[in-house]
Every structure is written in C-alpha cells, then in structure tokens.
Amino acid sequence: MKAYLDCFPCFMRQALEAARMATTDVARQREVLNRVAQFLPTVTVDATPVDIGQTVHRLVRKITGVADPYRAVKKRSNDIGLRLYPELTARVTAADDPLLAAIKIAGAGNIIDFGPKVAADPDEVERMIPDAFARALHDPIDMLEYRAFQDRLSAVNEILYLGDNAGEVVCDKILIEQLVARGKAVTFVARGAPIINDATVDDARYVGLDKIAAVITNGSDAPGTWLDDCSPEFKEAFRSAHLIISKGQGNFEGLSGVDAPIFFLFKAKCPVIALEADVALGTVVLRQQVLEKATK
User: Fold this and answer.
1) pLDDT of 228 over the 90 cut
2) Given its phi and psi angles, is residue 123 left (phi above 0), alpha (psi -120 to 50 degrees) or beta?
C-alpha cells in the first residue's frame, strides 16, 4: 500500500507524541519535529506508510536517546488485556461459534493502538475498549470471507500469525487458543525491536503466548511487516507458510498486494485505511488476499 498525502500530517503527530513520551525536554521535542519535517519532503511516491514510519521513529529514538518511548504504554496495555482476558475468554466459550467470536475479539483488540489518531492517551484508549468489544461481538463480519477462512483452515496444519500491538496480543492469544484447540500449530511473529506500541517477543511472553505457540521475531523495527527489511529466517517462514493471519493496519499496509496465502484481520481505525479497504471507519475486517490480483 502506498502512502496517501493524508499520512504526512499523521507522521508529524506521531513524532511529537513519541518525542513527548521519550523526554520532557522541549528543545529535543522541537529537534525531532524539525528533523522529521526535513525528511518527509524526500519521501518518494512509491513509499509505504511502513517504511516511512520506520524512519520517523528511528529519528525519534536517535534524537531523544530513548530506545523504547512506548515502553510504559505497552506494559499498561498488556495489563489491561490480561485483566480482560477471563471475561473475553468466557464470551468466546459461550458463543454459538467460538471461532467466529474469537476472530471478532481479536479484530476488536486492534483498537489498542497508539499509531493512528484513535485516542490521545492510554486513559482514552482504556475507556474505549469495553464498547469496542461489545460492538464487535454483535456487529456482522463478512461471512463469505469467514467461510473462505474456515475452508483454508481445514486444509492446513500450521499457521503463521503476524502480531501487531501490545495489549492486543491478549486478544490474539484468545484466537490462537481456538486454533490450537482445532489441532493447528501456530507460530506467532513479533517485531524485531521496539517500534511505537507494537508487540515484541517480550510482550508476547509477558501475556503467555509462548505457552501455546512458537514465538519468533521478524527481525525488523518497521511498524508493520515490510518484507525487504525482515530477517532471512522470517522470510523463509513467510514463503513456506500455507496460511498467514496478518493482524493490524501496519501489516495490511506492508503486505497488501504481496502474493501469499494471507487473511488480513484488523479494525479500520483511520480514514485512509478505511478508504483503501473500502469499508466504513471502525469496521472489523477479515479479508483474504486475492492472489490472482496480487503482484510479487
């Protein structure tokens, strides 16, 4: 997916928010904005939001000297998810179709995100979460896509699951538990280094994902799966996968158009993604990559 012009002011906002999380030094914050403002005009027309975001947040980390500005936010997000885990698991277990309910919960969990302008702070995100899950369980999902997912799931034994955000990984755990209960072996993929509030291996282990799935890294600090920047080991796992669940907007941005057996699962949280996916803002999307239209 190519970046839209609408993405550029969003990158400036992200840079300022990350800089403020990293330091109270206003001069450093201003330097971050100045450097990002110098960088954005150099972006080529074929650049993706994922590679632009990688450079923006590398600048934040370099200028502030803070390796993980979102560390406290991620810890809080994971703890919120773990507090919700018993209730959400009970809802899935009690559902007429637990797999469908788990998909909806995992998709709604994508609300726990501090990249898009969803909310200004963790308090606001936390207030939004209960309603997001309640609506997700009642809102319809594309049943043609769901049936296609069921058909694909029945034909494979192993699944590559591309994670997105901290906190959200608890919702991923609920879906992965349903997949494991159906006899599937799941490999969960985390980011290779801290980037925004994306989940790293430490976050996956913190919520216990390593107890039910293999947990690996993609070797990249991009805010999404950008194959050119991933490790050889991950790229081999990606190439050999027969079913890939791609969580979140960043992975959709990076992998849209890539020839692979992907099912995207995300919440359309910003107008650009909603436009690109041709859905209403706020929709939980389950969508198969259309291989015959994809380009390598």
Assistant:
1) yes
2) alpha
